[in-house]
Amino acid sequence: MAEFGRQRGKREEDSGLGSVLDLLLANARLVLGVTGAAVLAIATLAVKRLIDRATSPRDEGDPKAEQKTLEESWQELALIKATPKPPKKQRREDLSEPLLSPARPPVPGRAHEPRVCPAPPETPRVESSPPCCLTLQEKLVSHYSSQLAVPGVQVSLASQLAGSICTQLQNFLRSKCPELPFGSLFLSGPLLDGLEALTVDHLHLMLPVVLDTMLWSLIPGEDTVVRNPQYWMIKRTDLEYFPRGCSPWDRFLVGQYLSSNALNETLHKMLVASINWPAIGSLLGSIIYPVVASQDLKLEVKHDQVELSIILFPVVEMEDKVLLAAPPEGLVENLWLESFYRAEVSKLKELDAGDSGARRHCLRILNGICKSHPTLHKLSGSPLTHVVLHLSATSLDWAEESLADRFQQVLEELVGYLEKGVLPSYFNHKINLFCELLEDEIDEMGFMLYRAISEPELLLKEK
Fold first, then answer.
1. Where is this region: Disordered (predicted)?
2. Residue 317: how many CB atoms within 10 A of its CB?
3. Which positions ≥6 away from 300 have C-beta within 8 Å?
4. pTM as predicted
5. Would you tell me the crossing angle of helices 359-372 and 403-420 to the nearest 10 degrees?
6. Is 94 exposed, middle or buried (0-12, 13-18, 19+ CB in 10 A)?
7. 342-459: which CATH topology?
8. What does CATH list as the number for 152-338?
9. Secondary structure, 3-state, the chain
10. What is the pLDDT of residues 137-188, one digit of tens each?
11. pLDDT tens digits, one per residue of 424-433
12. What's the distance, CA 307 to chain centroid?
């Protein structure tokens, strides 16, 4: 009787639990939909069976029954895991449509047609182009052609203008100072010799000063007051036999030395006050005016197509030396700067002709980059040329295909010279081409180039 009561109580509990589950499943269809209700039903049925097996008396000592119970439990759990998940709800196109639509009775005589949702329009596929990974060689050539190359028309026009100004100035000097044996003016500069690019912005106008070698001699730079082997002094000799006035250049003597400062001051006055530049400019279709405040003998030329800066340099050629009237800044007078430009150009052309090399091409790119860079502009010109010449003695492959390798190698060489603070001249190892740079300038340039060794693109960005 007691056993019957326990069974009856259990059935009542089961009946109550079943009623709750039935109610839950009945409402699940409305809340979760058909698929969600099916998943909940399977899960509920499995849990209910597990509870039944846990509360029902087990057949003690019947291993087959226990094994069957375990197998059924694992099968039901696997069934729960294998049940497909309900698909994600699609975004409603019409926000006015309710999220859960009430069930509608089917219309008699018409088959229930499932609602077909229009497919979203396909987004047109854009073929992604592969990333453009240029080599350093290609970047250098592209950078030169796009940013550094100077149109030949501008070079030709600049040469014609400068040549005409040269002729006008030559005629003026011969008429104004016939007693001074000036030689024939001629144009010079990296642009005309293919060593520089970027813009047609400056040219050099060389004014030869012809000296009688019997009356003048050179004093080496080491013996001058600045102790710099690149600066020389020109001394007047044999004054006891050939007193002052025997040479037409004696009017520019300071002590016993031909003063570059005195000669420049005289020429500066002529350029500013004596020459009718507006008339010459009108004749040449341009505007020409001297720069009054400049220490250099500089002319500014403005044309419709080009703008030029022309610097006049008195030059003395003696004992295989080329000396410019370009004294160092400061109170030092009488000094003449030795120029290696002519030797640089000649040596580069000789080397490139011997192996069809790209030294001048590499130098044009380097000059263009450094000249336009706020930190590296003092490296352009002669220092870069001498680095390339030094490197040519050890690196023999200067073919066009090796331009990128030589470019990076020049950067490495420059960093090494900057670390030492010394760049010896290719033609005279006693001369340090970095001697006029400040220590802070050397540090800044060295840091910039050190970064550029691993990232050369830093130098190729537009300024």
1. 81-129
2. 14
3. 288, 289, 290, 291, 307, 308, 309
4. 0.69
5. 60
6. exposed
7. Poly(a)-polymerase, middle domain (1.10.1410)
8. 3.30.460.90
9. CHHHHHHHHHHHHHHHHHHHHHHHHHHHHHHHHHHHHHHHHHHHHHHHHHHHHHHCCCCCCCHHHHHHHHHHHHHHHHHHHHCCCCCCCCCCCCCCCCCCCCCCCCCCCCCCCCCCCCCCCCCCCCCCCCCCCCCHHHHHHHHHHHHHCCCHHHHHHHHHHHHHHHHHHHHHHHHHCCCCCECCCEEECCCCCCCCCCCCCEEEEEEEECCCCCCEEEECHHHCCCCCCCEEEEEECCCCCCCCCCCHHHHHEECCEECHHHHHHHHHHHHHHHCCHHHHHHHCCCEEEECCCCCCEEEEEECCCCEEEEEEEEEEEECCEEEECCCCCCCCCCEEEECCHHHHHHHHHHHHHHHCCCHHHHHHHHHHHHHHCCCCHHHCCHHHHHHHHHHHCCCCCCCHHHHHHHHHHHHHHHHHHHHHCCCECCCCCCCECCCCCCHHHHHHHHHHHHHHHHCCHHHHCCC
10. 777 777 665 555 566 677 788 889 999 999 999 999 999 999 999 999 999 9
11. 999 999 999 9
12. 26
Q: Please, where in the chain does CATH 1.10.1410.40 lie? A: 342-459
CB count within 10 Å of CB 156 equals 12
Which of these, 187, 182, 178, 181, lies nearest to 206 by C-alpha position? 187
Q: Residue 126 contacts by C-beta under 8 Å, 6 or more apart in sequence?
A: none
* pLDDT exceeds cutoff 60 at 55: no
Contact 415, 450 (CB under 8 A): yes
Residue 5 one-letter amino acid: G
137: its two tokens: 């060689």
Bridge partners (DSSP) of residue 182 are 209
